[in-house]
Amino acid sequence: MTRILAVVFALLSLPALAKDPLHLYNWNNYIAPETVKRFEEQCNCEVVQTYYSDNEELLAKLAAGAKGYDVLVPTGNAVQALIRGKQLRPLDAKALPNMKNVDPAYLDTPFDPGNKYSVPYAMSTTIIGYNDAKMKELGLPTDTWAVIFDPKYLAKVKGRVTVLDSPNELFAAALKYLGYSANDTDEKHWKEAADVIKRAKPYWAAFNASSYIKELTVGNIWLVHGYSNDIFQANLDAQAAGRKFQILQGMPKEGAVLAVDNMVLHKDAPRPDLGLKFINFMLDGKNSAELTNLIGSGNPNLDAAKYIKPELKAYPAIFPPKQVQAKLEQLHDLTPAQRRLRSRMWTEIKAR
Amino acid sequence: MTRRHSGRWGKWLVAGPPLVYLFVFFAIPALIMVVASFRTPGDFGGLAPLVGADGEIDLNLESYTRFFEDALYAQIFVKSFWYALATTLICLVLAYPLATLIANSERRRRDLLLLLVILPFWSNFLIRIYAWMIILGPNAALARTLNGVLGAFGQEPVSLLFSAFAVLVCLVYVHLPFMVLPLYANLEKHDQALLDAAQDLGANGWQRFWRITFPLSLPGVYAGSALVFIPAFGIFAIPDILGGPDDSLIGNVIKQQFLETRDWPFGSVLSIVLTASALAFAALAAWVGRRGVGRLAAGDA
């Protein structure tokens, strides 16, 4: 009760205290509350967060002229789209001394050569998530895309599998399964991938991007093509609910999609100075590690490793094994013509 | 003279704000969409500049050609049409007895029943859809009972969640109040004397319903059908959340054009076709409705 009152008073007194606001347009649950609090104390400002649920939503909103955001956290290919769309403000490297903490492997990417606009924040992979008890019982492999795409395996888990409701992610996985690059743009290879998807589709319960975490947790779904952070979350929930099984991450040996989310400044940022302060703050190992500890995200920050909980070291998505790391690929943005072609294929896949 | 004059002003005062609202929030966005449908998608989302580097205005029919040359999209429209039609008919069959019951109950009970019909609106639309995920889930009582019965007859178990069945159940659930309310509003006004007279003249229960109550209720039927059919036709959230791998409807394809594909022109074309067909159905319903009422007035029923 006192807590509720405290919140009510805090809300009532907000206008009186109105501090400098930093507008952070972020993924949901993508920064630890204690990190926000520490930053607010340090900068004597207030972090105002709004959320998006995928890059497309962010791009669509900014393309429609949304303003008022300082810092955004888009994925690599969306950074590229934003740069080409002239939506970003160049970063002032002098204001970011903590840049030295970032693993050089994640710097200077084709999306933003020389990191003029973006700094890696956190990363995730699109991998296999599975119910360990069920997979063991059925004797299914969990380290290959074949378990998602090959009817030979799928027959045993018919109706218990979901895949992401995202053409780019699913095509990438199918292309990887076929031994191509996730960024392959050969139409012939796309058709092969579409055939793989069509052959597997009758065995899938749904294309699902939102509720598969819950379905895994309660044991309705046993196998998913999903985001590593979501699978991590599903296991936390399953353990908290006292389930007899675990939800584990399977890193496919064929490789997978790596998504590196980056901090960028919007071109119309009302407070670029606060934005830079925030970016530099988040590049501090301790602050960066808090996110990994919260949601199991991969961490491109070399200084963060020592603050990450030791029990997280076994997660392949947080610390990808060396031989897999080479097979992780960031998705590139497609041209409008390629997007149309893929959309046509996707519509056909889903319609029939 | 002056009174008539002030009456006209009064009309404008009353009708003005909603008209302005509709103009700003329906007509203008619809126009923007029409213009967008003739433009070219930008390289990284949005639209390519209207005036190109060579000073030519870039307006073309490409997205329309793409729609009309490819049967796939028309097929999805047809599929969505059947879902919407099935939803409308099921809602009608379910809502009619309910509306009759409410209209015929005593006043105090009537208010309570009406309140119960609109009660679901007190919680969020998406939350109500998510609730169906739990009700239809494989570990819930419903699926377990059904599969127990099926198993007893040696049948394969079925999945209720992530299926066309789930989509239809939820479509009906969400839209049912929109059928009940106009039907109730109509049925409640019926004159009991007509039915009494018919009974005196020897009409049995069925004849009284079919020759008097039903024809008189047609305006309510049409209004309810339009209110159910039009939103059900374009819905995307329900198939997204409850549908299986084959249950993507035209609303989902449109959403996909604006999000993943970042193809606003093609999304606009699909939206325009959707709006046009929805308007056509509404016009049809209004026309049939007016004809039905006209016929009644002419004593032809």
SSE order and pairing:
The complex is a heterodimer of chains A (352) and B (301).
Chain A: H1 2-17, E1 20-27, H2 33-43, E2 45-52, H3 55-63, E3 71-72, H4 76-84, E4 88-89, E5 118-131, H5 132-138, H6 146-149, H7 151-154, E6 161-163, H8 167-177, H9 187-200, E7 206-207, H10 212-218, E8 223-227, H11 228-240, E9 247-250, E10 256-266, H12 272-282, H13 285-295, H14 322-325, E11 328-329, H15 336-351
Parallel strand pairs in A: 1-2, 1-3, 6-7, 6-8, 10-11
Antiparallel strand pairs in A: 3-10, 4-10, 5-8, 5-9, 5-10
Helix pairs in contact in A: 8-9, 9-15, 10-11
Chain B: H1 2-37, H2 62-69, H3 71-104, H4 107-118, H5 125-136, H6 141-152, H7 164-187, H8 192-200, H9 205-234, H10 237-242, H11 250-258, H12 264-297
What can be said about this structure in brief?
Chain A is α/β, with parallel strands linked by helices. Chain A folds into 2 domains: 2-123 and 259-319, Periplasmic binding protein-like II (D-Maltodextrin-Binding Protein, domain 2, 3-Layer(aba) Sandwich), CATH 3.40.190; 124-257 and 331-351, D-Maltodextrin-Binding Protein, domain 2.
Key words describing this protein structure:
heterodimer, A: 352 residues, alpha/beta, D-Maltodextrin-Binding Protein, domain 2, eleven-stranded mixed beta sheet, 15 helices, 17% strand, B: 301 residues, 12 helices, 0% strand, globular
Explain the overall architecture.
The complex is a heterodimer of chains A (352) and B (301). In chain A, helix 9 (187-200) runs parallel beside helix 15 (336-351) and helix 10 (212-218) runs parallel beside helix 11. The mean pLDDT of chain A is 92. Chain A folds into 2 domains: 2-123 and 259-319, D-Maltodextrin-Binding Protein, domain 2; 124-257 and 331-351, 3-Layer(aba) Sandwich (D-Maltodextrin-Binding Protein, domain 2). Chain A has helices spanning 2-17, 33-43, 55-63, 76-84, 132-138, 146-149, 151-154, 167-177, 187-200, 212-218, 228-240, 272-282, 285-295, 322-325, 336-351, and strands spanning 20-27, 45-52, 71-72, 88-89, 118-131, 161-163, 206-207, 223-227, 247-250, 256-266, 328-329. Chain A is an alpha/beta fold and 352 residues long. In chain A, strand 1, helix 2 and strand 2 form a beta-alpha-beta unit. In chain A, strands 1, 2, 3, 4, 5, 6, 7, 8, 9, 10 and 11 form an 11-stranded mixed beta sheet that branches. Chain B is mainly α. Chain B has one domain: MetI-like (MetI-like fold, Orthogonal Bundle). In chain B, helix 1 packs antiparallel against helix 12 (264-297), helix 3 crosses helix 7 (164-187) and helix 11 packs antiparallel against helix 12 (264-297). Chain B is globular. The interface between A and B is large, with 44 and 40 residues.
